[in-house]
Hints:
By secondary structure, this protein is of the alpha/beta class. It has one domain: Beta-carbonic Anhydrase, Chain A (3-Layer(aba) Sandwich). The chain has helices at residues 19-30, 47-61, 83-100; strands spanning 8-12, 35-39, 65-71, 105-111, 117-119. Strands 2-1-3-4-5 form a five-stranded mixed beta sheet, covered by helices on one side. The longest helix is centred in the last third of the chain and has 18 residues, at 83-100. It is globular. The chain starts with 7 loop residues before the first strand and ends in a 6-residue tail after the last strand. The model has no long low-confidence stretch (mean pLDDT 94).
Amino acid sequence: MVKRFTDAIVVHCIDFRLQKYLDPWLQNHFGHDNYNRVSLAGGVLEFETISKQIEISYRLHKVKKVVLINHEDCGAYGKTGNYKRHKADLEEAERKVEALFPELDVETYYLHLDGRFEQMSRKNR
């Protein structure tokens, strides 16, 4: 029988500069085949699109966790994409996911271009 369920959905930006950091980080946290991966320009910038993907992932694959990752120097944000804005957007996205899907755990991260993942999740502060 083909495995139909997975632990998490991970949403991050499409930026090619991130892949060398994201791939090993994701494998360390979830293995090679234990998460759904969604790449969208801007990460959490367009929440409506993200919420649809989370809903589908939850319904079809019974995910238990949502991981949202924004990053430094994001072109989709343009000049407004400073650290403070990313932090606020990640916090807002976290609150919205918790409201829409209270049964799911949510983790948020800010990925620095040096490869450092800074956890932003409100519950871990």
